[in-house]
Design a protein that fits this description.
The complex is a heterodimer of chains A (346) and B (616). Chain A is α/β, with parallel strands linked by helices and 346 residues long. Chain A contains 11 helices and 12 strands. In chain B, the strands form 5 sheets. In chain B, strands 11-10-12-13-15-14-21 form a 7-stranded mixed sheet, sandwiched between helices. A 6-stranded mixed sheet of chain B has the order 3-4-2-5-6-7, with helices on both faces. Chain B is globular and about 85 Å long.
Amino acid sequence: MGNNGMEIKEIKLTAKDFSSDQDVRWCPGCGDYSILAQVQRSFPDIIGVKKENIVWISGIGCSSRFPYYMNTYGYHTIHGRAPAIATGVKVSRPELSVWVAAGDGDLLSIGGNHFIHACRKNIDLKILLFNNRIYGLTKGQYSPTSEKGKKTKTSPYGSVDNPFNPSALALGSGATFVGRALDGDAKHLQMMIKRAAEHKGTAFLEIFQNCVIFNDGAFDKLTDKKTRDENVLYLEHGKPMIFGANKDKGIILSSGKPEVVEIGEGKHRVEDLIVHDENDESFLIGTLLSHMTDNPNMPTPVGVFRQVIMPTLDAEIADQVEQITKIKGEGDLEKVLFNGNTWSVN
Amino acid sequence: MIKEKEVQQVTEVTVRFAGDSGDGMQLTGSQFSETTAIFGNDLSTLPDYPAEIRAPTGTVYGVSGYQLHFSSADIHTPGDRPDILVAMNPAAIKKNIGELKPGAMIIANMDSFDRKNLQLAKYETNPLEDNSLKGYDVYPVPISHLTAKALEGTKLSPKDVARCKNFFALGIMYWLYNRPLEPTLKWIKDKFKNKPEFIDANSKALTAGYNYGENTELFTIRYHVEPAKLPKGIYRSISGNEATALGFLAASVKSGLPLFLGSYPITPASEILQYLSYYKNFGVKTFQAEDEIAGITSAIGAAYAGNLALTTTSGPGLALKTEAVGLAVMTELPLVIVDVQRGGPSTGLPTKTEQADLLQAIYGRNGESPVAVIAAATPSDCFTMALEAARIAIKFMTPVILLTDGYLGNGSEPWKVPNVKDLPDIPVKFRTEKEGFAPYLRDENLARPWVKPGTPGLEHRVGGLEKANITGNVSYDADNHDLMINLREQKVKGIAKDIPLLDVDGDQSGELLVLGWGGTYGAIKEAVIKARENGYKVSQAHLKYLNPFPSNTEMVLKSFKKVLIPEINLGQLAKLIRSEFLIPVEQFNVVRGLPFRVSDIENKISEMLGGSSNGK
């Protein structure tokens, strides 16, 4: 077959090509399985990135085993440091597509500093937060995203810690892409992974992920077929914010605050609703959406909260190297060593 | 007509400039050094300044000093006790008087000896007038007043005029030691090229100081120190931190690998980051990280991605980087960590020198976590050892800790600049061959293959969990763990085959060997030379490789009846030597945040050999 003059076409990869030979060792029923599957399914569609140019970096936690299961380059590092290690990879090799898999404890507690600085510097990293609102690998202590009052092994009388709001934190740190998806909504999750992949800059994707052992059902309201339509707001750029099984509810801005209203005859009109603008540079819509999350009177938004294009740190560092080289000429070690005041001993 | 002044020939001089942190003493000192280097003397410097940037003026704790030892002969230290002190205020005298040689010369800016400054320095009466400086050769000079007079008619504010006084003082010193003004005049021109009024003022102040020396009747003698007879070559003056930066730049060129530095500013190491951030046209990427941990972890990411990866820090930073060093050990990546040691523990003495991070470097991690540890001996040796650190890291796929210290980092000396073609190449081999690849295969040096992400077909995973031998898969197997622990240890031990033997200066065996490491080289060397001049039989050896030790270390030590180990810590190398070789060594430890005094080591040598018929 080989020599019959057939044109060789690049073969499109499949999900299987991204699967490593390692047995996946998460608990049966863990939300991580779905996230892994959606990543493997969506990666063949990411245009322009070769498999050998993909690097997964993780820290410590259940979800941080992720790189072992991806047949790409991967580095399972130490607790909290994945964004910093990924930064070194990306800054030194901007041509690589660098992904971070992190849990809520890893990214927001021990690694909080690296996370906010990665967002601030707009390093071209794709950061997936597997947010299950619990410490899983250490067997059930409250995490920085656990809701106040939660009873866990280290908070038997209820946690007195206020949780982080991850998307608000990312926005506040200047992230240029902030989005959310659910482990239980495969199609939407795949779409969001591709959106993150296509973004040039720090892409922060929070994924609500169910921990079957220590926090089972935390997101049932959002993933259960019976309740999800009433509780999830799917965001679409340029479209009014509508939700509900019968698409009869929407979000209006009333005295500067978001409010759920019914739409239809004698009620609010669709034109009254907030129209989602992902590219809103003012942070207003993104911030509004991020703070709807824990409001019991509001649906939980999923989708892209905000996406703006800004120069990335890795590109700017590379640019500076190029520009300075252009001005000064390629480095001449001899010249540098003999630079300054020299004298000769004969 | 003023009569021709007497010129006295001297072989060596130790000068100390001292004044307020805002008086420009570091600048004055470094200009004097630069000119002295160009003049051809051998020299060694010791900047000594407070951690506060502008400590309250006039106070003793705000005094900033710069010491310089120069000579017509070979010298190795910044000098024990100054022959001459330039004191810009009373506090400078208060702080330094106890360290001067008996009969030392003091040039004091008498204008600053007013009531306020005397009070701030806690003087009840003026030391220039109350005879308390009897025994010293004191020259009160109205430096502020004369500077203002020299600058009459300039457009500078009185405050700016006052700031030129350090150049006047420098001018006096140039006259006194017969140095040319040109290098500093040129430096002033470059430095203030956008502020012509400052070029004019500072140049005038410098020249006026020189002419004052020439014309005043105060000074009757000036001194001449002949150029030193150094080996042939082209020289420049270099500080340890600059030499470190240039060493890694050279390593990048010689290995063909782009240099990545991830670092967080910390005294006294920040300068290395500052220097390297200039060399973008060499493809150097510097990343000023959010903290020490991100400094090293970004470097680990760059090492994984196939760069010459470096992080620079001081003791507190090394403590923060500890866990990440372990990750580089487990994932067997080439990484260089520079620790410019300072006084500890905790924040300690940020601007002072110490050698107390040796055990932290060798042992300070969880688990069995071997890394190579090497140390520079002099400021210019930082260049050589930076190249060595990179070479070992790459060849053995291991983290290497390079120890320097505040004294080496800030101190400077003449450096015979090497030719690029004489520097050895650093071979690098990236694995690209798919056939038979496994991430934890090992070569003859037990190094694993280095694979750049982006290489098709070699996609693989590494991590901090224990690795299965060869495959690198996660393994909890008991025997495999034991095997891997030993493999990592053997790999680092094997570096001993690849480094120079320990050299002995002096008799190869005998009564006493003085063994040192790191920045104490010069002080020990000078002490040993002086002890020999006094008839003692004493040899010197200096360890630049601390883990592993050179393979002949035990043999060398056992060739002497006694071994003395002076260290600026409480005996960390002594502990290592005892535990490794079961050799009883004598330790000598003074931990003052300053380099050793040569005389202290010399006294210790004579104490150990005193009365011994073999020793003298």
